[in-house]
Design a protein that fits this description.
Layout (H helix, E strand, L loop, with lengths): L1 H32 L5 H11 L3 H4 L1 H13 L1 H34 L4 H28 L14 H25 L2 H28 L5 H7 L5 H4 L1 H18 L5 H21 L2 E3 L3 E2 H4 L3 H28 L11
Antiparallel strand pairs: 1-2
Length: about 325
């Protein structure tokens, strides 16, 4: 039972980080789009994610559905508390999708749909930050559903995630574009990298003091030599990112940011383990019956390789520079 529950924790964690990384850069491009004045360049930005943006959302659906099926107690506990930010996030993603499609066809009202695309992207990013911040901070079931998601740490995570997504988006555009637009993305990335470094430092300093159990885990002398690897690797990746931008390398900045996201995500998992509702319900207590976990696991083992191959194939087919505006 524990192994099955842990396996499902791993699958959900994998789906979430896949969405953060893949959905993150297209949200970042949506946020960036309003700051690029040239209409043709905005069209190129949208064209760079046109073949893949809808598939990126699949990972979010997979993570939510897996949580509902594998850990129904956690799902029913988290949803009422997080209902407002999750509801706003879903509406923002739908709103963003509609704006994405309409801007491809609109002529006179195109600028309105571009604003809607930006608003949907930034709203989705900040609400995801609220959800992340609440998970790191932990839940208090004695307080019911009274806006536990709205606090200084959640706001900090929301702002940090916006800058993180913008950095991912700018670095993705460095890979996909050339000329003036690529130069602009280099400039944006070189400035935003310092904001994300500040966010990483601020979150890292605040996190251990959110709960005594987090502080005890991170400052335990037996754990510190191992846990110190995470901030050290994050700093190394930041320096690599800074140097790659200085040398105008195309692919390395994007992968460095992915590495920094992974370091932070691993830190979040270490802070939360073994809770799936942090500091309230462990993953063992929230898991479904073993027969249900096995039944769903068979389906996941069939569908997950297909989804991974589809993702790989989509990015492989549409690799290379975007030099023309693509529509359908």
């Amino acid at each position: 039972m524990d192994i099955l529950a842990l396996a499902w924790c791993g699958l959900i964690a994998f789906a979430v980080i896949m969405y953060v990384l893949l959905g993150g850069f297209d949200l970042g491009i949506g946020i960036l789009s309003v700051f690029i004045r040239d209409g043709h360049e905005r069209d190129l930005m949208v064209a760079s994610i046109l073949p893949v943006w809808d598939g990126n959302q699949t990972w979010l659906v997979l993570g939510g559905a897996a949580l509902y099926g594998a850990f129904p107690l956690a799902f029913s506990t988290i949803l009422p508390i997080m209902y407002i930010p999750i509801f706003i996030m879903v509406i923002a993603l739908l709103f963003r999708g509609i704006a994405f499609e309409f801007r491809l066809k609109a002529i006179k009202t195109k600028f309105l749909w571009e604003i809607c695309f930006f608003l949907g992207s930034i709203t989705a990013a900040i609400t995801q930050g609220f959800v992340l911040g609440t998970f790191v901070r932990g839940f208090d079931l004695t307080k019911g559903v009274h806006y536990q998601w709205f606090n200084y740490f959640s706001i900090l995570c929301g702002m940090g995630l916006i800058f993180g997504y913008v950095l991912l988006g700018a670095n993705y555009l460095i890979i996909k574009t050339e000329g003036k637009l690529q130069k602009k993305c280099y400039n944006i990335s070189s400035k935003v990298q310092y904001f994300i470094l500040f966010a990483f430092i601020a979150v890292s300093i605040c996190s251990p003091f959110l709960d005594p159990s987090i502080k005890a885990r991170w400052f335990d002398p037996a754990n510190m030599p191992f846990l110190a690897i995470l901030p050290l690797l994050t700093l190394i990746l930041f320096v690599m990112h800074w140097r790659a931008l200085k040398k105008h390398q195309e692919h390395l900045p994007f992968w460095c940011v992915i590495g920094m996201f992974l370091m932070c995500y691993i830190g979040f998992i270490i802070s939360s383990y073994p809770y799936i509702v942090p500091r309230e319900i462990t993953y063992q207590a929230a898991a479904s019956d073993s027969s249900a976990l096995i039944f769903m696991l068979v389906g996941a083992l069939i569908m997950l390789p297909i989804l991974l191959y589809y993702t790989y194939h989509a990015y492989r087919v549409f690799r290379g520079k975007v030099t023309e505006v693509v529509k359908y």
